[in-house]
Amino acid sequence: MIDFEEELKRFSPSLEVSAADEDLYKNDLKDITDIVLQMTADLRDEQILVEAEDTASSKEEE
Amino acid sequence: MAEKTCIYCGGQVDENGYCLSCKLSQDFLRKAGNTSLYYYNIGLDRARMGNLTGARESLVMSLRYNKTNIDARNLLGLICYQMGDTVEAIRHWVMSVNYRPEANAAVRYLKELREKPKTIEKENDAARTFNIALDHAKRKEFDLAVIQLKKCLSENKRFLQAYLLMALIEIECKKPGTAKKYIARVISVDRNNPTALHFLRELGTSEDAINRMAEDGQEEDSEALFNYYGMELRPGERPARKIFPEKKEGRRNLQRDNRKEQNLTRFSNIYMLVGIIIGAAVFFFLLAPGIRQKADTKQQTMETNYNETLASKNSEIESLTQAVTTLSEQNQAFASSTDAMQGTIDDLTGEVESLKQSIANGTAVVTSQSESTAEDTDADEETNEAANRNNANVEGISQDEIQNMIQSE
């Protein structure tokens, strides 16, 4: 049995040309390379943070 | 050994195969590129078979592995366009041109779209009316929603979402027959559309009927799409597998309808020509006689005016000719009278000369007579008599007159 309300939720408003112009470059998909780059950047940040914490704790111990 | 450059950023690659700039492994990039091509091939196969939804999914997956895969992006744009989602298609083509501005088919697609601003405007209107219809449907104002959707479909006949929404509303209004008609249109363009298949199954349509519906007018639609946009297999590219059997005659009801539509469009020039001929005939038979009559009347009036002018001029010429004749006669009369006068003058001049001579002779006689009277009056009486005779010969002129004439001379 078709549930009208549920089925209607699957329909999304169609984009108009003027709306598309605004966020054309913002909403481009991310490919796997972008994700890996993002991950390596995050890891690098984390590593830097951990290293900074380690140096801080070692200084405290000293 | 030549230095390797990174596939992703063009930076230098170290001996372990990692880019010194972006730190990415070249093996990883190559694998990502290959996977992207693999999904692109699947998408291409699905698109050739008319499974647009499946093709769209595969192409999106292809772009997830490599977003700079131009072929995948262009084909995704084409599929979006074929499904009536023009805005999405434009987005993909613009991104594609952004990644590769030269030797890119998307440039041509965008150029063709730009050359038809009315088409874009229509499809923009279709998107707007679809959104309004969706709002009406959410408020369960089905009549208004149907009106908006019909308007939307008249402006964009490839708008699959609008057909599906229409079908859903018809199902809700307990009109499964009409709903199936709209779903059939969706299936003829996108044979594996999950929403359409779901609706058909819920309406109790058998799988065989669904397959038949999908096959009707399916292959030529996708072929037309590829032919129109010049998509061809390149050397080394995997050709699409043919899963479905050869075209079957007698199962082309929807396609026949499509052909009828195309014929109507194709013959529009002939209709225009017929219209022009009818217009010319109306002009020739209805308007031209009136115009001709008006011109004739004008011509007659002009002829009458000219005739009147001509007659007046002719009479004037005649009177002038008469005047010339009279004057020439007068001239001749004057000339003849002048001649006569000249003759008279000549006569008078001759007379004057003769008179002068006679006067001269007469004077000499008188002088000699006086001298002889003083010396010898008696001896010369005969001479005086002779002189008197001479004087008496001048008839009609008195002595006084002669004196006056001499004085005047």
Describe the structure.
The complex is a heterodimer of chains A (62) and B (409). Chain A has helices at 4-9, 17-22, 32-61. With 62 residues, chain A is an all-alpha fold. The N and C termini of chain A lie far apart (73 Å). Chain B is mostly helical. Chain B folds into three domains: 1-115, Tetratricopeptide repeat domain (Serine Threonine Protein Phosphatase 5, Tetratricopeptide repeat, Alpha Horseshoe), CATH 1.25.40.10; 117-232, Tetratricopeptide repeat domain (Serine Threonine Protein Phosphatase 5, Tetratricopeptide repeat, Alpha Horseshoe), CATH 1.25.40.10; 270-408. In chain B, α4 (86-99) packs across α5 (105-115) and α8 packs antiparallel against α9. Residues 219-261 of chain B have low confidence and may be disordered. Chain A binds chain B through residues 1-2, 4, 7-8, 10-11, 13-20, 24-25, 28-34, 36-37, 40, and chain B through 8, 22-24, 28-29, 32, 36, 60, 63-68, 85-88, 90-91, 94-95, 98, 120, 124, 126-128, 130-131, 134, 137-138, 161, 164-165, 168, 171-172, 195, 198-199, 202.
